[in-house]
Every structure is written in C-alpha cells, then in structure tokens.
Amino acid sequence: MLGGTVMDIRTRYHRMRGDATLWVPGLDHAGLATQVEVRRRLHRAGIRFEALSRDEALGEIERWKDEHEARIRAQTQAVGFSIDRSRYRYTMDPASVRATREAFVRLYEAGLIYRGERMVNWDPTLRTALSDLEVVHREETTSLVYVRYPWADGTPGGLEVATVRPETIFGDVAIAVHPDDPRYRDAVGRSVMIPLTDRTGPVLADSAVDPTFGAGALKITPRHDPIDREIFLRHPELADPPDIFDASARLDGDRVPAPLRGLDRDTARARTIEALEREGFLLRQEPYRHSVARSERSDAAIEPRLSTQWFVRMAPLATPVIDAVRRGEIRIHPERWSLTFFRWMESIQDWCISRQVLWGHPVPVVTCRSCGRATVTVEPPVACAHCGSPELAADPDVLDAWFTSWLWPFAALGWPERTSDLAHYAPTDVLVTGRDIMFFWVARMMMAGYYFEGQRPFADVYFTGMLRDELGRKMSKHLGNSPDPLDVIREHGADPLRFGLVFPNPTDEDGPFGATALEGGRHFLTKLWNLVRFAQPYLPPGTPAPAAPPRLGPEAALEDRWLLTRYRRTAEEADAAIAGFEPTRAATVLYGFVWHDLADRYVEIAKESLAGRRGEPARRASAATLLFVLERTLRRLHPFVPHVTEELWHALPHDGELLAVARWPDPAEAPIDPAAELEMAPVLEAVHLLRNLRAEGRVPLEAVPRAWIRPSGAEIARVLAAQRGTVERLAKVAPLELLAPDAPAPTGAGSRVAPVGECFLARAAPTAADAEALQRERETLATLLAKTEGRLADPVFRGRAPPEVVAEAQGKAVDLRDRIRRIDEHLRLGASGGLAP
Length: 837
Ligand SMILES: [Zn+2]
What we know:
Layout: H1 2-16, E1 26-27, H2 31-44, H3 54-79, E2 89-90, H4 94-109, E3 113-123, E4 128-130, E5 135-150, E6 158-163, E7 174-177, E8 191-193, E9 200-205, E10 217-220, H5 226-233, H6 265-278, E11 282-295, E12 303-312, H7 315-326, E13 331-333, H8 337-346, E14 351-352, E15 354-355, E16 366-368, E17 374-375, E18 392-394, E19 398-399, H9 402-405, H10 408-411, H11 420-425, E20 430-434, H12 438-453, E21 460-464, H13 485-492, H14 494-502, H15 515-535, H16 558-579, H17 583-610, H18 616-637, H19 642-651, H20 674-696, E22 707-711, H21 714-722, H22 724-731, E23 736-738, E24 749-754, E25 757-762, H23 768-793, H24 795-800, H25 803-831
Parallel strand pairs: 1-2, 7-9, 13-21, 20-21, 22-23
Antiparallel strand pairs: 3-4, 3-12, 5-6, 5-11, 7-10, 8-9, 12-14, 15-19, 16-17, 16-18, 22-25, 24-25
Helix pairs in contact: 7-8, 7-12, 13-14, 14-15, 15-17, 16-17, 16-18, 16-20, 17-18, 18-19, 20-22, 23-25
C-alpha cells in the first residue's frame, strides 16, 4: 500500500502533466514463499504437504494463488491505484515462461550459467537450497565444547579441539592449526584418533585457521562447513568423506554409530556430548555467544550442505550496473542507499538459481540418457541436440522466482518479442519499492536490463521505508499487526489511508502507521471538505470556472494579494518535492497551506469581504481569489487523495469531465506580490503573539479582552492600523489599541516583545474552574500546614529532634503560610472581577 501510493502519486502527477504514463500491474508467483504458506495452511488442516502427489500439491498452490490474486486486485481497486488492468501480467503466464527460458538459454550459451557443487544454505525443514539473501543471522548463546583428540600412535595426551557442533565429529577428516602457531609446531604431520570412531586424521597447517578460537585447533568436516571445505580443497591428500546428514539434517550413513542414526541435530548434539563424556574425551563446556544462520522462511538453523546447483556468474553482469549508477544513469532515492547498494554490488557472489521445490519454472535443461549431454533450448526439446536421442531426462529443480522477476521491466512489456509496448515504453522511468528487496530484485533488474537489452531498465529508483505499527514493531503477517487494507478502507476510507501513509511520517523511513496516522488523514480531508462547503455559497450557479487568477491591483485587499502569493510559493515547492522524489515534503507543504494559510487565516480574514461588508468589488475579488486557489489546490492534491478531490472538484465551478485528467496547473500563472507578503507578516505575527498571550492567561474561549500593541516602527504601525480589524477578529481581542512610542505600558496585562513590537493583553478574570482549582490547592496546603504546626507544637519533637530537623520544619511552615496567602489574594481578585487597567 505504501509503495503503491507513492507510485500512484507519481503516475497521476505525470498523467495530469500530459506525460505518457503507464503503470503495469503484475503478480509474481513467489515460488518458495508461496509453497511455505500453502504448507502452513495444509498443516493447520492436518495435512502433510509432502504426503500429497505432485498434481495435488500444485493444485493446492494454484488455489492459494487464485485467492490471493483476487484479494490483491480488490485491494488495489479499493485504494484507487490508477493501473492499466488490461496489461495485467503474472510471472507464470505463457509469455513469462517464454521470457524466463529465453533468459536462461542466453546466459547458458554465453557461459554465464553453470552447474556446480557448492556449499549451499540448506533449509532442512523446507528441504531446499536458499540464496544468501534468504538467510538471517542471529546472535544466539550455545555451548562451546572442548574435546580431546588422542594421538593416533598411542602416546599420552592429544589435541584440545573446540567446537560448537560436536555432532559433526563423524564427518571429521583432519585437524588444522595455523602454521605460525608455536603451540602446534611439533603436532603438524602427526595423526590423531577421531573420538567415538575408529578413524584417524592428520594434523595439518592452514592459514585460514583462527588461532584465537578455542585452543587454536580446528576439526575439519569438509561436507558440513564452508571454511572446512576450503581448507579441505587445499589439501588434496585428504579423501572426500560421505555426508553424515540426510536432507532433513538427521544423522545418517555408515560413519555414524548406529544408535545415533536418524537423530535431529539438537538431539544428536546432546547424545554426542554424553558419549564423549562417557568415553573420556570431553574436556569441558563453556557458554558461547555467536551468530547463527537461520532460514528466513522456516526459521530452521541453516545446514551448510554440499550439493549440485545451478548458478549465474554475477561479476560480469554487475560491472556495467556499477558504472551506470556511478555516472548517474540510474539514480537511487534517497541517495543514502547508494552506499549499501555499491557495497553489495562490489562484492557480489554467484547467484544460486535452482530450488528444490515444486512451485516454479522448471530449470530448462534436459540430459540425454544416451550420450549424457545437456540440451538447453527456448522451445522444450523433443530430442537430444547432440545425438538425436528422444530419451531425455528433465532437470528435477525449479528456478528461483526472482529469476523471472528480474526480467520484469521489459518482460512485462512483451520481451523477448519486439512489441510496440516495448518500443514505446522501454526503458521505463521509475521503480518504487521497499528497500528490503534492493538486492533480491532491484539490483538484479538493473543487471538484466544492461545484459539483455543493453540499457537501463529505469532511470530512477525510489526506496520506501518499512512501515511499523504504532508500538514500533515491524509489520508482519506472522505478528498479525499488518491490517488488511480492505478493512482499513472500509473503516476509514481510501483517501485517509493514502494520506496517512505519506504524511506525517516520511515515506522513505521506517515510521509508525496506525490509527493516529489515519485520524490525521481524516481530519485533513474534513478540513478540505469544510473549506469547499464554506466557499460554495459565495459561488452562485453560473460562476465560471477559474481560467486564470483574478487580476488584483495594489488597491485590492491585502489578504487576496497575499493568498495568491502564498499559493504560488506552495505550488512551486510542492511540485519541486514531487519531481525530486520527496512525496512527504509535497504532502506537508500542501497540508500546511490548506490548514493554516487557507482555512485558518485567509477564510477568517476574507469573511468580511466575502459577506459583502466591504463593497461589491471587494466581494467579487475575494470570491474569485478563493475559487481560483481552491480549484488549483484540489488539482494539486489529486494525486494524493484522488477520491475526495474528484468529488469536491465537481462541487465547484470547473472546466472538464474529470479532475483525474485535468491539466496540472502551472504555479507561474499566479503572481508573486512581495509587498503583500511583507505587509501580512506583522499582521500574522501580532495575531500569533496575542493568541499565545490568551493561552498563557487562560483566557476563556468566549472572552474578548482588550489588547495593545506598541509597533516597533512607523511602517509596521501603518500596516497594523490598516489591518486592525483583521488582527482583532483573528486574535479575538477588542479593542486593539496602537500605542505611541512614548505612551506608558498598560498595567495588569500580559506582555510580549517581538519584532513587530510590544504586545499587551488584558488579563481576564479567573473563571469559576480556576477558583475551584485554587480552593482545592489551598485546602491541601492548609492540611500540610496544620500537620507541620502540630509537630512544632509537640514538646517531645522539639526536645528530641536534631536542631536542623526542627529548623527545616519551621522553614516549611513559613513557606506554606506564604503560599496560602498568595492563593487568597488570587481568590479575592477573582471575586472582584480581575485586574483591569
Ligand atoms: Zn544425446
């Protein structure tokens, strides 16, 4: 909703400016994520996903997808996104199948896709490989276990080896130490017994060993740890052992003692520690805090696993993108995210694109059963490309869903066909998305754009922040604190939701969103609604649509000249903010203008002339000014709150069928009148000061106290004299008297000194509520005083208490009497009607 609202603001803004706008809606099949959700739903219904046949499982996934597709469509419709539904695309539709295969084949033929045995992040719950981006790292406390590996030749002692994963001991092939570690100079080249097994392993030297970890000796389990794998590969004398875990990360295989086979990692760890202790190999255990890798999808601890996967070589794809962003061909907003972007791009790893799940595009590779070679073609092959045999075996894996999504900026326009949409709209202009998928999606789209089309996929990327709830927690489906937009829209309306998302929290930061934001949006729209209702009676039927601002001469009312100028400045700032990818600043500027300048100031001031009390020419000028500014402001607010503005626009004299396709108004059509701004400044300042004095003196709302201003100069005196009625009405004071420079200051008045001059406001009489509060305060103090006096009158207290305690009680009594006396004064004054000068 947040990203969509920002996109819709841009789309509507550009459409009104006359630009060719296209917002293509699409849905991605979210391979693994979808399968996880379906698995969870079936689990709740008591069905094991793994027990379903392939077709049944795919049927469940299709059903889930159809439901969500319908819901997403209903949400985007209800919130009013102006997307082109006729161009709706789905990452599993036939055109996407074609595009995905095309991309795979091109990369494969260029040698950028390869199949390799790699240590992958294995999720033992979902039983699939995950990309690095799907893994989260969390600090967790576990046990560091110190184990003695005895010398193989039977000499006493052995090596002390520390490990957090003692259950992997059955996969050990060696012990490695740092070559410069003096403790192990004589150990390198010897052999140790691997505890709980009948195998031995050599002690070898490798500079990848961290001598500060544990005792500085590292057990080498080449199939279950990436660092161990690297060390193993540098020592070809070591034989590659079999896996000791199955796909669910349960101990498995001949190397594992029979009683431990089939145990999950946690149980296996406990049992291994027991066995080590029983057999005398356990030296000690200590608590250890370290970073544990977990699956973002299932939360299972990642098991590094050696497996055969498909990879994309990323470095050649990343280089042109890094260059393009550096020279500003693609711009990142807000710019601070460029640093994160470059850091990742410059150390990019190859992309593991195969997944061991059902849901997704099959890896488009078939292997010949006769000659054993691979055929990789866009059209699914019927025979081996090398020997012609029809005996072909499909690859069992599917592709990472991002392997389709990364093609989206051009695939959604028809690529690889040279469609007219592609010719007309590619490269696109703007991508708006959450920064959480900066690497999953945004960076990869850039790489695909330069690789497949030789050009940028878009010119600007805008990253929104991640919404949090009002308690500051990340919104997530699991926490249940992410409301269904349809419910929010039913309860609050679409426009309050849209406005609440953009204002007041910056859309590019992780701000809280909830009832407060929605209420704020609703209040603003009510204010706007009331403004139009206020204006309607002054715009009788037949009033022409405002083609241009009214021409106001210097003799025109100050408020009309000032409002046109304020409108011009607001319009310029809002337009610059939208163009500069600052939607929140645009909304803030428009909000401030509508709320403060238009509703609170102008309408209050112009009521006189609108009502005709200053004559017919003044009435006509103010009505024309109000209509022009309101109509243009509705246009400018339209991208933010399209429903309410469309409705209100039709309630005012207007020209055209729909506000949605009305022309975006040029700020420059309104004049700038610096004299009006200069003159209005002291008036607004005086009102502001007098309002503050009212609040401070707790002047009741209905009271109209006297006020004085001693202007700081002759020019200000002239302006204030001319606008005296305005200040009186806005600050609700009467009469307002302008004091001569040498006149004495009024007594008994609250005062303020400011650039405009000295302001004074007569203090109003305390209200009944004030008197009651004072009376209550007096009673509390009197009780305290009675207690203190009682203690002081007690001879036991006076005789026994230390002198400083007695002195303190005496001081307290004096203080209390003084405070009661002052309250009595206020109460007397209140009763006599206050301090009037
Ligand atoms: Zn063949």
